[in-house]
Amino acid sequence: MFHDAGDVRSLVRLYPVVSIVLSAHIILWILFVLPLTALEPVWQYIIGTNGAIRNGEYWRLISPLVLHYDFNHMAANSLSLWLFGPWLERALGKGKFLLLYIGGGVGANIATVLLLPPMYTHVGASGAIFALFGMYSYLALFRRDLIAPKHTQLLLVIVVIHLLLSLMEPDGNLMAHLFGFATGGLLAPFLAIRPQLPMFHVIRS
Q1: Which residues, in sequence order, are CB contacts of 95 under 8 Å at separation 6+?
Q2: 3-state secondary structure of 173
Q3: pLDDT band at 179 (very low <50, low <70, confident <90, very high)
Q4: Annotated catalytic, 177?
Q5: So where are the chain's domains?
Q6: Predicted structure pTM score
Q7: Looking at 78, 80, 126, 166, which residue is catalytic?
């Protein structure tokens, strides 16, 4: 794992933004998976729908970042955030980490709106997750003072694997993955890492 939180209580205390986003993933997935007809209009009002966004419903650029179609989708994104989010939250601070996460997700969704058909609908945190990978890639290539060489190779391999998996995913939003990654990489030079931070390291458990 890439953090040193040994239990849920430590995760919440040390990494509050990651904890809140993870909780939102799980709670909203449970709410919308329940057979509650009253929630169906809410779902339709907050999922990403390209045509609606083009008509001015811009909140749909953000709201899909905490919504998921099924358990596997939610679990995969939540696991990635749990593994890769804490070190960056600690490195950037809460505000900058949130800017990276939401900025990457919004960048991915803007690309989806511009490049995919008006009737296309989308939910999921994948664009934001790939923004974290974009940030890590920048650090691995240009901030060798923060990431040891052996971990640089590990990070780059993980990023390449995730990119290849997105290419093979038939129902995935490849545009969101690629542009989330690109947005994270573009934001990275402007989000200063605190100089007192220890180097990136893998916690063995």
Answers
A1: none
A2: coil
A3: very high
A4: yes
A5: 8-190
A6: 0.87
A7: 126
